[in-house]
Input
Amino acid sequence: MSAAIVVHGEENRQREEIVSFGRSLFERGLSAGSSGNISVRLDDGWLLTPTNACLGRLDPARVAKLDWDGRLVSGDQPSKEAFLHRAMYSERQGAGAIVHLHASHSAAVSCMHGLDDHDCLPPLTAYYLMKVGRLPLVPYHRPGDPALAEAIRGLAGRNSAVLLANHGPVVSGSTLEAAVYATEELEETAKIFLLLRAVPTRPLNEVQIAELKSAFRLDF
Output
């Protein structure tokens, strides 16, 4: 019986954490209206923010709980982009949480012509590389298109984050805190990238990147 109580308590803690981080993202302008969604892996399934829900006004009891076949176990109907989260979880066994936002600067980059499909943002800072690494571009799919799952699955095994064309980023992390921090670093780097578009820049070079990979055991 004690094991069941521990699991139940952990689920409640994760629900509260989703609400807390969701409110923080919304209040800082990183999630407008009912856009964006957050999920967390559990031992017996996973939690996902509901469809048409504002991240700033989530109710922990109404956060959807699903099994690994995508069936609703409890809570409100999940985001229509549930398949997007499932695809990334299936390829990244170490992912404990996923954040998907339409934050302004990263969404703006996703609409740009001429991006490097294999890595949308240059290595402008060490912190971006440490938290995100490489950011491949997923070709445009309409919202809710199940084909998007396969497109993500093909990239998620080698990358902790992807950028959906004309849409926004999908970022995984070992914990929800890690996924949120990586999402914030990605958004800040996208902002810096846009600010420097008309200015000669000096990205980190191959030697500097190799040093970071070695020092922090980065895998990208």
